[in-house]
Amino acid sequence: MTTSLDPAAVIAEFIDAVAPYDPQPDAAPVALLGLRTARGDEMFTLSDHVIRAMCRALASYRDPEDRGECVGCGGRHLDENLHCKNCGRLHGILGQVIADHARRVAASDDGNAPSEPA
Ligand SMILES: [Zn+2]
């Protein structure tokens, strides 16, 4: 995302969107969230309902670049072709096809693919 974000506005909008569904709207706030950005300081008092919703939202977030971990080296940077940038291992269907082919070739002593249908 290249457009500038206003985190305080986003948080305020989140609270506005979630707070109406608070089953205990009169309960005391349970959390105080401070935010300091170039735009200044903001404080948000959060009810139990809102802070739980915020935690769930954060927990379910996944970075668009996050394509899982490499099973080879544990690296976390797979490119859009599920190719590990650290060790070069391929994942996904293409990686599986290549790995299966390599196994068939390796299993064939004389170089002929043994299980190839005629
Ligand atoms: Zn790797």
User: How confident overall, as mean pLDDT?
Assistant: 88
Strand order, main sheet: write it out.
Answer: 1-2
End-to-end gap: 52 Å
Helix content: 25-40%
Major β-sheet annotation:
2 strands, antiparallel
Number of helical regions = 3
**Small molecules held by this entry:** zinc ion
The share of residues in extended strands comes to 5-15%
Q: What is the strand tally?
A: 2
**Helix vs. strand class:** alpha+beta
Uncertain runs are: none
What form results from the Cα inertia axes?
Answer: elongated
**How many separate domains make up the residues?**
2
**What is the succession of H and E elements?**
HEEHH
Radius of gyration, in angstroms, nearest whole number:
25 Å
List keywords for this structure.
3 helices; about 120 residues; about 10% strand; alpha+beta
Descriptive notes:
The protein has a two-stranded antiparallel sheet. The chain contains 3 helices and 2 strands. By secondary structure, it is an alpha+beta fold. The protein has 2 domains: 7-59, no CATH class; 64-118, no CATH class. The structure holds zinc ion.
